[in-house]
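Fold this sequence, please.
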Amino acid sequence: MRRFPHALLAGAGFALVLPACGGAELTAPVETMVEFETKWQCDVARFAFASSDEIDAKREETRARFGVSAEDHKIFTDMLEDDETLRDSVAAGVDGLCPVVDEAEEEVGA
């Protein structure tokens, strides 16, 4: 499992104490949730899915690999809406794990 530099997560640590989703609290470590969300967003962007069922199956497979419950994922996505630092941590992880390749650059290098 890829680990992200702690600097990316430095601002995210305080999010553990923030209740979300009507008082439910995140039970998974924030670092794990950032890693999971980063991997999940990268996978969604990289792979083609024929149906929403395939997307759901891939999300469940990724959750299982990271040991993340559906409830924690929902709480975390709610936290992302309210926490810019947390969103930045996920975005930085996605940029590092799944960089966007400019098609024009790719053609020049070919």
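Confidence is low (pLDDT under 50) at residues 1-21. The longest helix spans residues 30-46.
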